[in-house]
């Protein structure tokens, strides 16, 4: 964590933020059916302009929790935060902190299909309102500063396409967050995955960092202050110069020729060294705690005499329309480069189409094939819908990126949901069209151009509904295996209650009234059945001269024909209701998307 002075990074200046402080920050989590647990207890600190503080401590000591508390990021509603950030000694809201600061989290949430340069460009467009020349100047500066210029045109990397290394991804993550020139920078383990030289260069350049577990001596000496945490309480808080005297005073001196960072981390690791009460009491009895408190009190007094808080809008942010267009542009690049998003699905659906077309090949319009045609209609809609689970990995990557960018205050769920929907529409339409071109004519469904178009549109709506369901479930439970299981179960439920396996008239009332009427697959099946049987006749063999043997009794029986409407009557389908069914299906799609928006709005992580 650090405060910027004037200037530190070429375009980045700070002439208004004098200090960032926090007083008695506590974080309490109350899990279900369990007692409340204190993650942080009364942690205080202050960073002056131009200073850099390393927040250190063993695993589980509360380092990330403190950063999340300062940015008002909490994983669930059972988390209670008391205390908060102060700018120049004055209390500020989370939205205010977002305007002045940036937060680089532990995990690299990047779009793997973008190049390094595109990643920085889109970060700039989502954060700032700049001219193309200024945007490119910032991007070029950061590429050069982080040693990424030679990799500017290399993609970050996906599951099927190798990109830059892990250390380079970390540098890209940090550079993307520095694009705005923030006055306050919080970084959570920014040197993870980097070799010592790369870590040194990043800390030297940024000089704004939260410390990883064992910083090298060279990196350690670049910091101005140390905040040492253990089990959520303060073990030390002061300047680098005060480390040696303090640890001598508590009977734990730093041995000669030893990295001080390693020594104080061992001291704070109460599971292997001192006990927690000893460490805690040593700090509370020290004179150093008074030094820290005095520094914070001085900032508070100065704030009461000379209240000075910079304008919230430290730079011009892009508007809603610009952000939405930028997200759509980025999503289109991702969708055509990342074969996992739609390429593999297109191949899967094409393979399914070839399989279906060669199994149900050239079915003649005779009564013996009516059941086969009905089976093919059900199979097309149900399995097209089921295979939408292949979109889950791509959406979870998009959601992770959205969560990080939303956490930094760039945009909310509305532009994300809109961009996701508009990006998917042309690809899903292309999938429906390619699938139909193969299946429809090979299987010999109703051979008219109008019927083919209607069939394709029903499949398109089917895919839209299926993908909307995937987005809703994956937004609610953003864990791949859980989202996969939930989506598969939902599709199985829709197949069973859709009206093919058990006709609606004989379906158990519980399943019929609770699920059948909200089952999007049922409306797809009904629409495609009407498309096939609404105006097509099927021949039935003559049993003897003057008599026909038709399994469906219709007005055309004397002509040894079955009117397709007779098949529809057996299912209870009215061919005049297709417009209503399409409207209901579109409503279901909208409801799924709105519910996904609600989930994304409620869930912060």
From TrEMBL:
The UniProt keyword set, sorted, is: ATP-binding, Membrane, Nucleotide-binding, Transmembrane, Transmembrane helix, Transport
Among SUPFAM superfamilies, the record links this protein to: P-loop containing nucleoside triphosphate hydrolases
The molecular function terms of the Gene Ontology recorded here are:
ABC-type transporter activity; ATP binding; ATP hydrolysis activity
TM region(s), chain numbering: 339-361, 373-396, 417-440, 452-472, 479-502, 581-602
Mention any Pfam family matching this sequence.
ABC2_membrane
Q: Which PROSITE patterns match?
A: ABC_TRANSPORTER_1, ABC_TRANSPORTER_2
What is the protein's given name?
A: ABC transporter domain-containing protein
Species for this entry: Zasmidium cellare ATCC 36951
